[in-house]
Amino acid sequence: MTALVDLSRRPGGTFALFAVALLCLVAIAAPLIAPYGPNAIAPANRLMDPSLQHWLGTDHLGRDILSRLIFGARVALGISLSVIAISLTAGVILGIASALSPRAVDLAIVGIFDVVTSFPSIILALALVAVFGPGLGNVVLLVSIVFIPHFGRVARAQTIAIRNSPFIEAEKVLGAQSWRVILHHVTPNIIGPIFVLACMDIPVVITIEAGLSFLGLGVRPPLASWGNLLNDGYTYLDQSPWLATFSGLSLILATLGFALLGEALRDTIDPKLRRTL
Amino acid sequence: MTFNPTRRQVLLGGASIATVVALGGIHPAFAAEDRSKITVRVEKDLSNLDPANRSGPIDLNVLWSVQQGLISFKPGSTEWELDAAEELEQVSDTEIRFKLRAGLAFTDGYGELTAEDVKFSFERFIKPDSEGKPVTYAKDWSALDHVEVTGPLEGRIILKNPAPALYTIALADGSGRILSKKAFEALGEKAIATKLIGSGPYTLKEWTPREQFVLEINPDYKGPIKPHFLKIVGKPIGEQKTSEIAFQSGEIDFTAIDPENGKALAALPDASVTEIPAIDYVWFGPNIEKAPFDDIRVRQALRYAVDIDAILQGAYSGLYPRANALLAPSLLGYWKDAPVYARDLEKAQALLAEAGHADGFKTKLTIEANARYEAIAQIIQANLAEVGIEVEIEALESAAYWALGENDASKDLELSLIKYNGKFDPGFQTQWFTSAQVGQWNWQRWKNADFDALHEKGGITVDPAEREKIYIEAQKLLDESAAFIWITHNFNAFASRKWLKPGVLPNGNNWLYTAFTEATA
Fold it and tell me: Minimal CA–CA distance to B297: which of B359, B362, B349, B342?
C-alpha cells in the first residue's frame, strides 16, 4: 500500500495507476461490461456516429466500436503480458546462465543477444511473423523472441555485479548448491530493475502487436485487436473518423499509462533517485 | 546609357518577382500542367506480356496499345473497327479473309508485319508450348483450324466450326494481338513475356517492376488509331485507398475508385468521376472435391446460411447490384429468372444435420488480401458461425493468391472468395467453369459433362436466341451444383482529372490507352 501511495506521488504516477488499473479492469470484465458482442455484425447499422445506442458509433460491418475496443484491451493486455512473461523468464535464465558460465558460453549467449538486438524490434518482429505466418500464437512467440535479450542483458549485468558479493561467497563457502544460490540469492537481488524494464516494455509490445495487426500480420479477424481496429478505421476514415480516433486514443492511453508507470516504478525502486526526492 | 543595379535594387527586384509569382499574377511556363503525359494507377504490376499467356486486364491494356490486331475495339464500345487489317470479310461461317495494311513495321527492327506473323500469332493458341502444354488462353482460339497465307499481306482464317464469339473474344481482344514471328524466334518464348515487341501506336519504353511502366508514342506507327498523349505512365498501387490519396495529391491522373467515395472525389475542383456498371462476377464457394463439401447438402446449407444482402450492404455500401447467376444483365444469356436465395438458417441447419454435421465443422476461407474482401470474409465468417461452421480467414497477398491458378494449387483450397473479370461474350465467362479448367481457374473443381457440352455448343451456335437459351441452361447447372454463391457483378467508378477523358471499355476493367484524350469543355 505504501508503495502504491509512493507511486502515486511520482510525476504522472496517478495518471499511470489510473490508466493501467482501468485497462486491467476493462480487460478482465470485458464480457460483463461490453454492451454488444464484439463480433456481432449488423451491416444495416454500418459506420454510425456515436449515439445513445452505440456510444462510440459502429464500424463498417455495423459492429459496436466500444465493445470491440473493450475486447481489444483484452487482446492487447493478454498478448503483452504473455510476451513479457515468456521473454522475462527466458531472458533472466539466459542472463544469469551467461554471467555464471565459463567465458566461451558467456560470449556465445551475449553474441546471440547482440545479433537479435542489432535489428529494430518492430522490423525483426515483422520479419519473423512474415516468415512464420500471422496468428495469435505466432505473434506471442515471435515477439517474445525479440524481447528476450532486453531482459537477458539486464539480468546478466546485475548478476555479474553481485556474483562476487560477500553474501554469495558466504553461501558458497557454506556448501550451498548452485541452483539454491541462484534461486534464493541471485534472482531476488536482480529482479527489481527487471520488473521496471518489464513495465516499460509492455507499451512497446502493445504497439508492436498493433503495428503487426494493422499490417494484417498480427491477430486474425474477427478477434478485435486495436491494430485491426485502427486499420479498419484508416480504410473508412473518409466516411467515419470515429473508429480510427477511438482506437488511436485507446492505444495512447494504454502505452502512456504503462510507460509512466514504468518510470514511476523506476523512481520508486531506485534508491539513488529516492534520496534525491 | 548603362544600367548598373545596386545590390539593394537586385534584391528588391528579385523579391518583387517572387512575390508576383507567388501570388499567382504570373504563371511561369514551368508551372503549366504538362498535358502531353498522363499517369494512371494500375491495381497490380504487369506480369506477363505474352498475349497467349497474359495474366489479366493490366497486361492486356498495355498489349492493346503496343501490339496491333486485325481489328480492335472502338473506344467506349463493344463494337470493333479495322486495325492492322485493311479489309476483313466473313466469307462463310468457317472462313474469314483478311488483307493487311502495307508498311506496318515492328519495333526494334523486326521488320514489316506480314500475313506470316498473323498465322504464327493465331496458330500458337492451338499448338502446345515449348513444355507441351496449351497456352493459357488456348480456349479463345479453340475454333481455329489453321491460317492460310495467300500473299505477303493476305490470308484466310479457317475455322473448324462456326465461332460467333471469335470477334469479341479473340480477334479484337488480347488473343488477337499480332506478334513478330522473327522476334519470337530470336528472343524465345520466355523473353516475350517481358520484352514487348509490337507495331502499335505505343512502345513499352520502360518497365521497372513494382515501380512503373512507361508507354511512349511509337514514331514509326502507321496504323489508323491516333493516340492523344505522348507518354502514359502506369503506377502499380494495390490499395484502392492509397490510390485515392495519390489522386488527391496529384500524383496520378486516373484511377479506379471505391464508388462509395465517388461523391467526395467528384467534389474536388479538378476531378471528375465516371461510373460504369460492370460485368464481372464475384462469388464464393467450396472445393467440392474436399469433404464435407463433396456433399451437396453441405453446399446448399452454405448457400442458405450466408446473407448476400448483408454482404452487399456491409462490404459494398449497398451500392453494388446483387448477382444471382454468372452472367450480368447486359450480357447475352442473362438469366433474369435465376433463383434469389434468401437467408434461411433453419433450412441450413436442417441440411447440415441431414448431412451429419449438426454440430458444424471447421474450415478455411481463402481470399485475396484487401479491405473489401476482408469485410466480405468477416460477414461470411459471422454468418456461418451461426450454423456452427467455424471459418478461419486466410488472406493472401495478390501474387500468392493468383498463383493458386497454377500447378494444381487449388486442390488444397476449402472455401474461396473469387472475382473474375467479365468480357463481352458469355462464352468467355463460362469457360472457367469447365472440367478442363480444374487445376487452373476452376477453383471449385466442379466437373459436369453437360455443362462442358453446353459451353462448347454455345461457342459454335450462330443464332443469338439459341445461344441465349444455351447459356441460361448452363447457368442452371451451375445453380444446381450449389458450388457457387454469387455476390455481385461489381460496379466501376473512376476518378480522373477534369481535362482527361478516359478510354474505358464498357466492362470497366479494360482500358484503351490509345483512347485516353483531353476532354472537350
Answer: B349
